[in-house]
Amino acid sequence: MKAVVYGAGNIGRGFLGQLLYESGFHTVFVEVNRAVVDQINQDKRYPIRIVSNEKMEERMIENVSAIDGNDNNTVSECIAQCNIAFTSVGVSVLPHIAQNIANGIHGRQGSGLDVIICENLLHADLYLRELVEKYAIVPENVGFVEASVGRMVPAMTDEMYEGNILRVWVEPFCALPVDKLGFKNEIPLIKHMLPSAPFAYHIQSKLYLHNMGHAIAAYMGMEKKYSYIWQAMEDQEIYDTVEHAMRNCAKGLAMEHGKPEDEVAAYAHNLIHRFLNRHLGDTCERVGRDVKRKLSADDRLLGAVALCNRHRLPIDPIKRGIMAALELLQ
Questions:
Q1: Is the pLDDT of residue 330 over 90?
Q2: Are 152 and 232 contained in the same domain?
Q3: pLDDT score at 120
Q4: I need a labelling partner for 282 at 20 to 30 A (CA). Which of 151, 169, 250, 276 fits?
Q5: CATH number reported for the structural domain that contains residue 67 in this entry
């Protein structure tokens, strides 16, 4: 079985590569960083380091290869031949890969394919479909599947690489919820991939719990000159603000989606514990980058305000994070 992962960055290698390797797939990474492509093809394996405050564990991910994302013909041919495809390139890059995906679909000559979209974007399935449809008619047996990527992977430093540019540090959390109704073919058995329907709850909980709380910690942390998320979360004012904001959003999500409130609250509490992971070394700068996009109407902060407003829940702690974000735009 062959999987194509468009993007050999931290999520591609540090999350998707692990799930696919543990599920018996050969993974072909599509990547424009030539040094990463060459190293993957030379080593045919790479290490991931799973870190928490309690322990560290290194695993070797094998059965991998890579192709240059600028080699359009080879990329299209690989998509035409794979069993499943993923994107993990960043929302802004999706328009640049749509034509290769379209060409790959055309090259399948009627054979079905599902593309799992691992991007932080509401309605990512509709967005990517529209991009691909500019270049080709999309058959009914081609699915675009939303996913909710919750694993936290920090920006790597030279020290963390330890001489291997393929090494990735990750947290232990390793679940990948995907939209069960987005598949047009038999859903492959992939370890830790959780097909679910309806899927709106998973997308919104990622944005309005995980991303929202993370963003408040980052923006208030930068305001107070902290480097790392864990440092920010050890500041009592920031912790209380994040916790209060996430508690309110958990209530809103439970009300909106008919979920047990204690279940959503427990997920929020677990997220806060994960934000305190010192060894992950996640920085406020990485989490808080691209401020304007993260302040857009339906993104993590203003979208969370709208959620709470719909259910008459307090928004002051979210507003505190928004004010800290706005200060960065001065």
A1: no
A2: no
A3: 84
A4: 250
A5: 3.40.50.720
